[in-house]
Amino acid sequence: MFKLSEIKELVKLIDQTSVQELEIENEGARLHIRKPGKTEVVNVQTAPITHTYSQAPVIGQPQAAAPQASPQPAAVETAAPKAPALDLHQIVSPMVGTFYSAPSPDAAEFVKAGDRVNEKSVVCILEAMKLMNELEAEVKGEIVEVLVTNGQLVEYGQPLFLVKAD
Predict the structure, then answer these.
(1) Which of 2, 23, 106, 115 could bond 111 through an S-S bridge, CB–CB 3.0 to 4.6 Å?
(2) Count of domains in the chain?
(3) What is the pLDDT of residues 19-66, one digit of tens each?
């Protein structure tokens, strides 16, 4: 499985080159990065995780959410995220998908404000193309704020959590 830091680094490298598309396969995990125009689309496919969310509405394919000429801003971001304090780390979404705060609808949230996390702590699940992808904190510290709500569609690079790093 690819680490979030590896995906971020590959996206930065692709963004700095004329390469439009990259596909990597490693130990059953496949990473596909495509750069149409000036935006990046990141798809990570791994063996499916056995989490099921029956209450989540079907929103459609994440690629269909690409911005086109529209008279008003998309309703995905209802409020601008707060500007982080200098000592806060942002955990951002590595892909377009649906944010889930718990492993199943009836389970407790992975993390909430005030919880301590380490680099390997799972903080949420991002569903993309019917695949459930666990997102790890990749930083040790305390969750200060959860910036999105359960079931919300999130964009690539959108801040999800603010963490006071140790």
Answers:
(1) 115
(2) 2
(3) 777 777 777 777 777 776 544 445 555 554 444 444 444 455 444 444
Residue 108 domain-assigned (yes or no) = yes
Beta-bridged to residue 31, according to DSSP, are 24, 44
Residue 58 lies in a domain: no
Query: H/E/C letters for each residue in 125-144?
Result: EEEECCEEEEEECCCCEEEE
| Dihedrals phi, psi of 30, to nearest 5 degrees | -125, 130
Q: Please check whether residue 70 lies inside any domain of the structure.
A: no
CA angle 47, 11, 122 (to 5 degrees): 45
Q: Which of 160, 159, 122, 164 is nearest to 143 (CA)?
A: 164
Does residue 134 belong to any structural domain of this protein? yes
Parent domain of 116: 81-166
Backbone angles phi, psi at 11, to 5 degrees: -60, -45
